[in-house]
Amino acid sequence: MTASEDITVLLHRFQQGDAAAQNQLVNAVQGELRVIASRYMRREKAGHTLQTTALVNEAYLKLINIRAASWQDRAHFFAVASQVMRRILVDHARQHIAGKRGGGLQALPLNEALVFSVEKSSQLVQLDDALSLLEKHDERACRVIELKFFGGLSAEESAEVLKISPRTVRREWTFARAWLRDQLGLSPDDDTPSMGQS
Predict the structure, then answer these.
(1) Is 193 within a domain?
(2) I want to staple 4 with a disulfide (CB 3.0 to 4.6 A). Which of 74, 83, 126, 184 is the partner?
(3) pTM higher than 0.70 for the full model?
(4) DSSP assignment string, 33-67
(5) What does the radius of gyration of the chain's CA atoms come to, in whole angstroms?
């Protein structure tokens, strides 16, 4: 059984109430959740860090508490995980900006040090606002950005989650990146914050 099949089996067992599956699931997904979190954190400005362990722990706690989720497979789980991490990061960036406007730093609920620059917090919030607008115009293109940029899924894995072809994923990726560059006021030579050519 492959790791992907193993995670899918554990997700289904967990949904059916198997308590032992939850512990096995933690061990099975923790590494990949850390990779997703680390991939995002590498895009942060040098000298400003967010500890991936705290992000992974908070995301996992939110994921296992999604009772209504009907986990299809590993790709679906990590697609939702990328959305959850995006929400956590954006919420913290918004809190940081609000704290700066209020004249002081605001305590954050994560148990490890978070250091955001105002500039990076603002960029993350702007990107989130642009993605929310994109979602209203083209939900599938927004999902592709979430899966590939935030979740680190390949075109093939994203296609599996979205039930479309990898070619369509690549086309949506190209469109969404151009649309986001336009919304964020970037030139065609610039790229949406570290959103490379994947």
Answers:
(1) no
(2) 74
(3) no
(4) HHHHHHHHHTTSPTT--B-HHHHHHHHHHHHHT-T
(5) 17
- The DSSP result for 124-162, as a single string, is HHHHHHHHHHHHHH-HHHHHHHIIIIIS---HHHHHHHH
Sequence-separated (6 or more) residues with CB below 8 Å from residue 171: none
Q: What would the two tokens of residue 18 be?
A: 């198997």
Task: Kindly state whether residue 170 falls inside one of the protein's structural domains.
Answer: yes
Residue with tokens 């994947």: 198
27 within domain boundaries: yes
Domain that holds residue 82: 3-183
Domain count, the chain: 1
Q: Report residue 167 as tokens.
A: 């070619």
User: Is residue 143, in this structure, part of any structural domain at all?
Assistant: yes
The torsion angle over the Cα atoms of residues 9, 14, 18 and 20, rounded to 10 degrees, is 80
